[in-house]
Design goal:
- The strands form 2 sheets. The chain has a 7-stranded mixed sheet, sandwiched between helices.
- The chain is built from 8 helices and 9 strands.
- It is globular, with a radius of gyration of 17 Å.
- The protein is α/β, with parallel strands linked by helices.
- It has a single domain, classed as Rossmann fold (3-Layer(aba) Sandwich).
- The structure holds magnesium ion.
- The site of magnesium ion has 5 residues, from loops.
């Protein structure tokens, strides 16, 4: 399958097609350095695009999600989708949809689902990553945990990608944006153009200095 064929698949989810296409391009660009990882696989939309990029360069995508949906997706809440209800648990279960999409896209050997909370997995993770997508829980605690638990695994030259960055707080919660600003302020990343609400940061190579770090140095040196 190629990316044009992928665009014909109907996905559930909250990511625009040009954001997902950007994920595909980024995975294809850096995937040779090491596997990619996403936090917040949901119904498999971003996993299919990232996974296709990974497949084309012979690497893997690990996709972490507890697949129980967020609080606002539970029965009676604003983003409830009855198609995603598990009749046995009476709770949301996005994993069957995720798996169907991955199989339909021909990516079952490339996309490795991990059904768990990201911080639990991070404690035992030792593999350097070429790309990390943070698109999980949108509370500050969840977004900050996903960032702080995983960022040390990102390879120099790799991408930290954060979804749902809203400059205007009336359009969405501010936790992903706050984490994005913290990462940028660390001086460890260069900022690339944002696609809608998809923020893209590149981990600077060892021995290089980020633009943000240079600006900070200019502002403090006497
Ligand atoms: Mg999102």
């Amino acid at each position: 399958m190629n990316v044009e064929q992928l665009k014909k698949i109907k996905f559930k989810g909250f990511m625009a097609e040009d954001e997902k296409t950007r994920l595909y391009e980024l995975a294809r660009e850096v995937g040779r350095l090491g596997p990619c990882l996403e936090i917040g696989g949901y119904c498999g939309g971003s996993a299919a695009y990232l996974g296709l990029g990974c497949q084309e360069v012979g690497t893997l995508l690990f996709s972490i999600d507890h697949h129980e949906g967020s609080e606002e997706q539970q029965p009676g809440q604003e983003y409830y989708d009855p198609d995603l209800l598990n009749p046995f648990t009476r709770r949301i279960d996005t994993f069957p949809t995720f798996r169907n999409i991955v199989q339909a896209a021909g990516l079952a050997d490339t996309v490795i689902p991990i059904v768990a909370r990201s911080a639990q997995v991070a404690r035992f993770w030792r593999t350097p990553l070429s790309l990390i997508l943070i698109d999980g829980g949108h509370s500050f605690e969840a977004a900050f945990t996903d960032y702080s638990a995983w960022v040390s695994n990102l390879l120099p030259g790799g991408y930290l990608v954060i979804h749902d960055i809203f400059k205007d707080s009336s359009r969405g919660g501010q936790a992903p944006r706050c984490v994005y600003e913290m990462a940028l302020a660390s001086g460890l990343f260069d900022e690339l153009p944002m696609i809608r609400t998809l923020g893209v940061l590149r981990r600077v190579e060892i021995g290089r200095i980020s633009r943000r770090a240079e600006q900070t140095w200019e502002s403090v040196r006497v």
